[in-house]
Write a structure and sequence with these properties.
about 290 residues, alpha+beta, Beta Polymerase, domain 2, 8 helices
Length: about 290
């Protein structure tokens, strides 16, 4: 595997030797002073260029970066549809384990480029950019919930929990797990992010897709979260839903206490009773009695 120094030399030499590339920025975890260093960190690079089309007319130029395992070109794909804002990205996974996410950004649209808080300017041939502040994860920290956001999160969680129960009772396990691990879990993760934000005065959160939860949750809450992941059987999916409801209730009532917002206790009690009733229903039931 090529070292970080070798990869950075390759990235920078390419930029210095190409007159079309006028500036280079790096962002992401490699510029985050608090990020854990490991071999899976991407090189998130932006080349600010005079003419994007002169690069994208022949993609073979990226071979200089190494032996490719697989590459994705989001702006050349139909699903999901491209953003069509003038930029072009090469997402490159190399055979030696390194990865570069390289974005070409047109200088003509520099005013629409958003500089993330985790950004470092590596090269500025024309002094187009003002000095950047030291990199920080401020763009990636949770914000305090509004009363509306908190209420909507609780409502969506308990509303879709009913869908999970319906799917499990029908033995439509794929549907049930989609609802459990899709919209229901999404609201749980949102609440957990607020919970960690409150505990840290919003200096930290759960991380992308909850990747920091194991380190930032109390052990009891982490153990309960582990129980929300089920194998594809009806009984275990019921158990996972029960664990998810218990954890959501615990975390959400704590967030409510800290923010002064109202937790929908009535919705919780009524939906929880319904879930228990559905779980006890025989498969040939024709009503809820």
């Amino acid at each position: 595997m090529r070292s970080e120094q070798q990869m950075m030399a390759l990235i920078m030499d390419t930029a210095r030797n190409d007159e079309r590339i006028r500036a280079v920025m790096m962002n992401g975890s490699r510029v985050n002073p608090s990020a854990k260093r490991d071999i899976f960190q991407d090189f998130d690079i932006v080349y600010f260029v005079t003419d994007v089309g002169s690069f994208t007319s022949d993609h073979s130029w990226v071979k200089r970066f190494g032996e490719m395992m697989i590459m994705q070109l989001p702006e050349a794909m139909g699903d999901p549809p491209p953003m069509k804002n003038g930029h072009f990205a090469y997402l490159m996974q190399f055979m030696d384990g390194n990865r570069i996410d390289l974005t070409l950004w047109p200088l003509a649209k520099l005013d629409s480029f958003h500089i993330e808080s985790l950004s470092v300017m590596l090269l500025d041939k024309d002094q187009r950019f003002a000095p950047l502040p030291p990199p920080s994860d401020s763009d990636h920290r949770p914000s305090p919930p509004t009363a509306r956001a908190f209420a909507d999160c609780c409502n969506e969680f308990w509303w879709v929990a009913v869908y999970v129960a319906k799917g499990v009772w029908r033995e439509e396990i794929i549907y049930a797990k989609h609802m459990l691990d899709g919209p229901v879990r999404e609201q749980l993760m949102k609440m957990l992010d607020w919970h960690i934000g409150i505990r840290t005065r919003f200096t930290a959160g759960a991380g992308k897709y909850g990747k920091h939860l194991k380190q930032r949750l109390d052990p009891a809450h982490w153990a309960l979260l582990e129980r929300t992941y089920a194998s594809p059987t009806c009984d275990q999916t019921w158990d996972a839903l029960d664990a998810m409801c218990e954890l959501f209730r615990t975390i959400a009532t704590g967030v409510a206490a800290q923010t002064g917002y109202d937790y929908p206790t009535g919705d919780d009690h009524r939906v929880s009773a319904h879930l228990a009733r559905v779980r006890a229903l025989p498969r040939d039931a024709t009503d809820f009695r």
